[in-house]
Design a protein that fits this description.
By secondary structure, the protein is an alpha/beta fold. Helix content is about 25%, strand content about 25%. It is globular and about 60 Å long. It starts with 7 loop residues before the first strand and ends with a helix.
Length: about 260
């Protein structure tokens, strides 16, 4: 495959238009396409999930050629990019590279994931990228992404796209200890990983920080949690249909039995 492919790429994130992860993803996108657009939040939007601004105006400003900052959420960014900013729709959406992994239930909170989700809703093949980080890590926090993201992207864009699905890629912290790449399913965390850090302001009033301890425990084999815990890059296919099929069958049987419906 040639180094430059015929794609119009939209790059976004939830950490903000000037974050190092976005700059890295932009460089990766430019290595495979000469038509790259950046539309990202003006301010950090981590944890905003799939939020959409409905009760306040959305503003944007141009930073550079094909480079825009939106005063809003990652979902706002995608909507503004597709319906206001870009003259033609992108053929690929890349979200990230997030500072911190998006594994297991993180996906429901993540603005990085939600940007890819919104792209998928709009019929655009989308990939979210996230990088494991650690406090006081003495080396480049994005080294694993720097070393592997481009080669992984080149592989993923050759896979036939399944409608209403997108990909979630997570990189472990230490690039020198990466063992390979694994296709994974979504894991599930232990609720004990959630913590509330309670503090007091100068007036003696309490305030609280919500966080996660990032302890993976003993995750189930084959999940994204297990892959990162064991030094593998995780690639998880996700889809928009949240229907629980087994529960649907059970509910239908119960309704058919207990209710007479025309």
């Amino acid at each position: 495959m040639s180094e430059t492919i015929s794609k119009r790429i939209l790059v976004t994130n939830d950490d903000g238009y000037n974050s190092p992860g976005l700059k890295l993803l932009e460089a990766i996108a430019r290595s495979i396409s000469d038509d790259v657009w950046i539309v990202a939040p003006e301010e950090e939007q981590s944890g905003k999930g799939h939020a959409l601004s409905l009760h306040e105006p959305v503003r944007y400003r141009q930073i550079d050629e094909q480079y825009f900052a939106v005063k809003g959420t990652p979902t706002d960014c995608i909507m503004m990019a597709l319906h206001q900013i870009m003259p033609e729709r992108p053929t690929l959406l890349l979200s990230g590279i997030n500072r911190g992994v998006n594994l297991a239930e993180d996906m429901t909170y993540s603005g990085t994931i939600s940007a890819a989700m919104e792209g998928t809703i709009c019929g655009i093949p989308s990939i979210a990228f996230s990088q494991e980080v650690a406090k006081d890590y003495p080396y480049d926090l994005f080294q694993t992404s720097r070393d592997h993201a481009l080669s992984i992207l080149k592989i993923l864009i050759t896979i036939p796209w399944i409608e209403n699905s997108f990909l979630n890629v997570n990189f472990p912290l230490n690039s020198e200890k990466v063992k390979g790449i694994q296709a994974t399913s979504q894991g599930f965390r232990d609720e004990a990983e959630v913590f509330i850090d309670t503090r007091s302001d100068p007036r003696g009033n309490e305030y609280h920080w919500i966080g996660f301890r990032r302890q993976y425990g003993k995750p189930k084999a084959g999940t994204d949690l297990a892959a990162i815990e064991n030094g593998f890059i995780s690639v998880t296919p996700l889809h928009l249909d949240l229907t629980h099929e087994k529960a649907l069958v059970t509910i239908r049987k119960k309704i058919d039995k207990d209710f007479l419906c025309d």
